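Weekly modeling sync, notes
Attendees: AB, CL, MP (scribe)

Item 1: holo prediction request
CL wants a bound-state model with magnesium ion before deciding which constructs to order. AB pointed out that an apo prediction alone won't tell us much about the pocket. Agreed to run with the ligand included and paste results into these notes for async review.

Input as submitted:
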Amino acid sequence: MNAATAARPGRLVIQDVHKAFAGTNGVLPVLWEITLDVRAGEFLSIVGGSGCGKSTLLRAIAGLETVDSGRVFLDGVPITRPGIDRGLVFQEHRLMPWLTVAQNVSFGRKERVGRGPDEEVSRYIALVGLQGFERSYPHQLSGGMAQRAAIARALINRPRVLLLDEPFGALDAFTRIQLQEEVLRIWRAEGTTVVLVTHDIEEAVFLSDRVAIMSNRPGTLRKIVAVDLPRPRDRTTDGFSRLRALVHREFFAVRKTTEDFQI
Ligand SMILES: Nc1ncnc2c1ncn2[C@@H]1O[C@H](COP(=O)(O)OP(=O)(O)O)[C@@H](O)[C@H]1O
Ligand SMILES: [Mg+2]
């Protein structure tokens, strides 16, 4: 992608966000005092255990969820609703089963030009490595290919922030590693800010500039680890192992300090 077509990366500012859900057993606090600044062009991961509020936080950034207090800003503008400046990819591909890859990618496009694959759609399909599969339907794709299509769909409007919610969680280990490499390549080519939610510490260390560690519910973000390893990264090096061990230790330390906090 050249400079003229690349997205302008967005800066996210999350200020003192709290969020609770009303449940059958009363109020369930899910996000607690979340403050986070994601730099423009940064690749930031959020790691945390199941149910700690990771998806809720990502949905708040996406504008799909309101917060009870605090605010989320994209380039200084409060986020109040979903917008094409934020692209979202989930664990499941969520492609429309009755549409082809090309139709799925072009479906959410801001400016729709005809129904067939046009230049822009083809470019994004090629960017995620799916050329030749434009006319395939989702059921004809492997899990990894479907996630590639979902990434192309999220990128078609050139979002300033790409939000990835455990996008590789349902894939086998080999496909996951392959797609991690692809996402890095796409991140470099597109120049967007990326926020990745994952429960896989190795994945977070491999991909990110910084790893934010979320406590058990209610989720807080009090510890952020900078991954100062040069890219391309090699999982087999001592430096990588040290960083992974550090994030592991911080993760368990954060969980310990919040055990008393559980309700
Ligand atoms: N719409 C909702 N209504 C009630 N509870 C919810 C809702 N969405 C999420 N929760 C609860 O909030 C907690 C955090 O959920 P979630 O953000 O999906 O966690 P994670 O993505 O970290 O696994 C869970 O206990 C979940 O059951
Ligand atoms: Mg989740």
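Recorded for review: The chain is about 30% helix and 25% strand.
Action items: CL to compare against the apo run; MP to circulate these notes.
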